[in-house]
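FYI - complex with cobalt (II) ion, inputs then prediction.
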Amino acid sequence: MIIIKSPREIELMRKAGAVVAKVFDVVGPMVKPGVSTLTLSKKAEEVIRGAGANPSSKGYGGFPEAICASVNEVLVHGIPSDRKILQDGDIVSLDVTAELNGYQGDACRTYAVGICPEEKLRLVKVTEQCFWNGVSHVKEGVHLGDVEHAIQETAESNGYSTPREYTGHGIGREMHEDPYIPDYGEAGTGPVLREGMTLAIEPMVMMGSNRLRTLKDGWTTLSKDGKPSAHYENTLVVTKDGYEILTKL
Ligand code: MF3
Ligand code: CO
Ligand code: CO
């Protein structure tokens, strides 16, 4: 069941979303060669708690840290570690979920570390473009499949792939609500969007094949072929004639 949020709830989600945006404002500039992903997660946690919010990922299904930090071939759910030191030429996605006054905000950015090869920069750029091409379809009355198809088409027309096992999602009181929003789909299919639906749309884009494996830690999910991936996500609310991004300042 897709939960429609009231204007009051949407206002609360704007506030949660602003906390997530603040994290990127503070932590984004810290992404440099030599910094550990744990340092980034600890700073993110400090910003989230400083705003009176909670880092929703910490303890979610047993996830041990405040944010996901996924480097190069890691697609999602990288566990921040003091042993994972960012290197010149890496790309790292930081996926941040925060809860404030009972409502969630969820967003992800992929950063280039130092000087990055052109092909990785292109991957990051196309992943962001997947998001914007997808959400350009969002408004009351549109099928969710239109959004999903635009994401898939943008990725594949650039020679990339998207995963089948991980998806975007509805969001609200819970981090993950209906509907599930794959990074692939068929136009004209799926649920019809209504004003007041709140969605986390999150293209995950892989340079090589979309075959995945998970490390023994039970979380770290990476490409089988070792090729890099990028991830970009925002929480938004569907409106009569479009959408409003909630994970912004
Ligand atoms: N932020 C992720 C998402 O986009 C979920 C976090 S998984 C967790 O859905 F285990 F880290 F919580
Ligand atoms: Co996320
Ligand atoms: Co999400």
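The chain has one domain: 7-245. The two ends are 30 Å apart (CA to CA).
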